Amino acid sequence: SQQGEEDPQALSIQEGENATMNCSYKTSINNLQWYRQNSGRGLVHLILIRSNEREKHSGRLRVTLDTSKKSSSLLITASRAADTASYFCALNSGGYQKVTFGIGTKLQVIP
Amino acid sequence: EAGVAQSPRYKIIEKRQSVAFWCNPISGHATLYWYQQILGQGPKLLIQFQNNGVVDDSQLPKDRFSAERLKGVDSTLKIQPAKLEDSAVYLCASVSGQGFFSGNTIYFGEGSWLTVV
């Protein structure tokens, strides 16, 4: 089964700046989801984008999906210290709701 | 809506001992997952249940790991005997809906942290 590859693996920015992280994959997907994980905690669902969608917004989050390039990006605008966390893309492909995760991007937002 | 409950939150055992983790998914969620997350890595799917049937256990080390979901609700994941490399967080997750789907939110528990010494 495939998993996404996030890039960069680590990102450090100043508070107020935008953070962009990318996820690439190899085979077709049904949908792609982004999750956040604070240190020592479980994963929290951020946003889902379906294979027939190109862009979605949720608050300060913007996700794009380019199925021709097999890639997605997550943009966090006006970052805050509280956004410090690891971010994972999760791919749903095949049947029965199978979901696989990449290795994640570790984001540090410096106050 | 109550979230996914997991216990215990933390467990330290010696190698070759056994351990069991319990998960109570969100009420009505037919699909339940167990993931293993080693520090610094992404979650790796161990097993996926649809109601009380196993859908995918291709990455479950069956010589030492076992899981069951009796009555299609709670689930337990057991490791026996444990190895040092089993030190990880074991995450349980659930999602509503059955069969082929396109995009329901998967809800995760806080995880069970296992340290094998």
Question: What report would you give on this structure?
Answer:
The complex is a heterodimer of chains A (111) and B (117). By secondary structure, chain A is mostly beta strands. Chain A contains no helices and eleven strands. Chain A has strands spanning 5-7, 10-14, 19-24, 31-37, 43-50, 55-58, 61-66, 71-76, 85-92, 99-101, 105-110. In chain A, the strands form two sheets. In chain A, strands 2, 4, 5, 9, 10 and 11 form a six-stranded mixed sheet that branches. Chain A is globular, with a radius of gyration of 13 Å. The model of chain A has no long low-confidence stretch (mean pLDDT 91). With 117 residues, chain B is an all-beta fold. Chain B has no helices and eleven strands. In chain B, strands 2, 4, 5, 6, 9, 10 and 11 form a seven-stranded mixed sheet that branches. Chain B is globular. The termini of chain B are far apart. The model of chain B has no long low-confidence stretch (mean pLDDT 91). The A-B interface holds A 1, 3, 30-31, 33, 35, 41-45, 48, 50, 88, 90, 92, 95-104 and B 4, 31, 33, 35, 41-45, 48, 50, 55-56, 58, 91, 93, 95, 97, 99-111.
Task: Put the structure in a nutshell.
The complex is a heterodimer of chains A (111) and B (117). Chain A is mostly beta strands and 111 residues long.
